[in-house]
TrEMBL record:
InterPro entries in UniProt: AhpD-like, AhpD_core, CMD-like
PANTHER family, A to Z: 4-CARBOXYMUCONOLACTONE DECARBOXYLASE FAMILY PROTEIN (AFU_ORTHOLOGUE AFUA_6G11590) (PTHR34846), CYTOPLASMIC PROTEIN (PTHR34846:SF10)
Domain named Carboxymuconolactone decarboxylase-like: residues: 13-91
Organism: Micromonospora citrea
Name this polypeptide is given: Alkylhydroperoxidase AhpD family core domain-containing protein
UniProt keyword annotations, A-Z: Oxidoreductase, Peroxidase
Length: 146
């Protein structure tokens, strides 16, 4: 059962997060953007976001094979060095825990992404984690009629 509609209850807060989303969508490579959004959503168990980002990626031409492999990206041969670095950073940022982002994860990302690209990627990862937490906490469900 859906708990709350954050967009209605706190429209200014919702618009602020939406602003981050629009920035990330505009400034991160589309393929990587979709992979990052999907990976964080899988890790956070956000059915709404997994559904939405999978559908969006498919609509923009991403292969279903690569999307399925996001769940096991470390073992899958379908991702290039930049995508792997972005996925590793997504894992580390999403699972901050007590240890933060390990230097080896950051250094691998910094090797293949410019400072600006890293900043934009970090904003995208942080933003999907905000959306995941809103959707999971509010029990937002994916639409059944799509």
């Amino acid at each position: 059962m859906h708990r709350i509609n954050v967009a209605e209850a706190a429209p200014q807060g919702y618009q602020a997060v939406l602003g981050l989303e629009k920035y990330a969508r505009t400034n991160v490579e589309r393929t990587v953007y979709h992979l990052v959004k999907l990976r964080a959503s899988v890790l956070n168990g956000c059915a709404f976001c997994v559904d939405m980002h999978t559908r969006d990626a498919l609509a923009e031409g991403e292969s279903s094979r690569r999307l399925f492999a996001v769940a096991a990206w470390r073992e899958a041969p379908f991702f290039d060095e930049r995508e792997r670095a972005a996925l590793a950073l997504t894992d580390a940022v999403t699972r901050l825990g007590e240890h933060g982002v390990p230097d080896e994860v950051w250094d691998a990302a910094a090797k293949v992404w410019s400072e600006r690209e890293l900043a934009d990627l970090l904003i995208a990862i942080a933003t999907i984690n905000v959306w995941n937490r809103i959707a999971v906490t509010s029990r937002t469900q994916p639409p059944l009629d799509v």
